[in-house]
Design goal:
By secondary structure, the chain is mostly helical. About 75% of the residues lie in helices and about 0% in strands. It has one domain (about 1-360).
Length: about 350
């Protein structure tokens, strides 16, 4: 029986990995066939890819380790702000893009572990409240420390990757600015690397330790698993991935923007995307973010513009635009999802089995 289950799980994993590889290949060739990727469409899709990276970090916390986290957007803000502080021309530091990303990863990882240390004994609602408060504290600090963060105006302009570097007559910095496909391919490459990394970690002893601690921390401890180290590793990896997303986001926009973007609402939206796709599922997280944020970033603006072209006088007021109803539409979708498919659209086999056992 155990051998049969192992074989079934292996076949499912191979199928999921093949599907992900096929999707990444299609995404890689899409800009070559669709000219719009060089402009606004490429920027919109890039934003979705960056949010996928942050959501995968949250999935490590919530799906793999079973720790409810409501402050993931704060780490996106910390990562992006660190990059901006280290690269903007007005700052005397002004180091290159790659060194700034490395420093940002170190900073976000350390902050994640500092948050995780005092909260290791918290679970459920208590942990959610602490991470929520942490996220709000970070947002307020980013907004009020104007001399460092630029306050509500943000820091900018943030130099693009490769600024000042010329290879074979190609100015890399200028290419990133004038052609959205450069940032698109950068975000796609980073996302593919993160997906491969998480698949490896999921199958590693650390991944199995996350699952053991999530299901029963006391039983895991009796088996010799260090619950403290396992949970701290989840905090660190989630913070690091969110920091990477923050770096890419700020670099692609050229500014840190309004710090309120890194607040509670963004954290909840990312959590909703993870739940929609399926907790503990890497492909599910990608699907959830694509549906939720793709709808918000790409579909709603296109639909509103089309409706205004069809009936320009009737669709100029706020209540008649889809953008005014996007939160309600997302809420309805989540309610329906929790009622008829609580495990998510593309669930992990383990969590899907657990939920079906509970509902029997």
């Amino acid at each position: 029986m155990t051998t049969a289950r192992t074989g079934s799980a292996t076949r499912w994993l191979r199928s999921a990995t093949f599907s992900e590889g096929l999707v990444f290949c299609l995404l890689a060739v899409a800009p070559l066939a669709i000219p719009g990727f060089a402009g606004g469409l490429g920027g919109q899709v890039t934003s979705v890819l960056i949010l996928c990276i942050a959501a995968l970090g949250l999935n490590v916390m919530v799906g793999f380790a079973g720790l409810l986290h409501l402050g993931i957007a704060a780490f996106i803000g910390i990562g992006g702000m660190t990059l901006a502080i280290l690269t903007v021309p007005t700052n005397p530091l002004e180091i290159g893009f790659l060194p700034a990303v490395v420093v940002s990863l170190v900073v976000t990882t350390c902050v994640g572990m500092l948050l995780g240390g005092p909260t290791l004994r918290l679970r459920g609602d208590s942990l959610a409240v602490v991470t929520l408060v942490f996220g709000e504290v970070v947002r307020v600090l980013l907004r009020n420390l104007e001399e460092i963060t630029g306050g509500m105006q943000g820091l900018g302009p943030v130099p693009p990757p490769g600024a000042g570097v010329v290879i074979a007559g190609i100015d890399l910095g200028r290419s990133f600015v004038i052609d959205s496909r450069w940032f698109y391919y950068l975000a796609l490459a980073v996302l593919a690397t993160v997906v491969a990394l998480l698949h490896g970690v999921e199958r590693s002893p650390l991944g199995r330790a996350w699952s053991a601690v999530r299901e029963d921390a006391l039983a895991a401890a009796t088996l010799g698993i260090s619950v403290t180290r396992v949970r701290l590793s989840a905090y660190a990896l989630a913070a690091a991935l969110a920091g990477v997303a923050g770096c890419l986001s700020v670099a692609s926009l050229g500014t840190t923007g309004d710090p309120n973007v890194f607040g509670f609402s963004r954290s909840v939206a990312i959590l909703c995307a993870v739940i929609l796709g399926g907790l503990g599922s890497i492909p599910g997280t990608l699907v959830g973010v694509t549906i939720l944020f793709g709808f918000d970033i790409m579909v709603i603006p296109w639909a509103d513009a089309w409706l205004q072209q069809m009936q320009p006088q009737a669709w100029t007021t706020g209540p008649l635009t889809l953008g005014s109803w996007r939160l309600a539409l997302v809420g309805i979708a989540l309610i329906v999802m929790m009622r008829f498919r609580p495990e998510g659209l593309v669930p992990s086999r383990r969590l899907a089995a657990e939920l079906h056992e509970v509902h029997r």
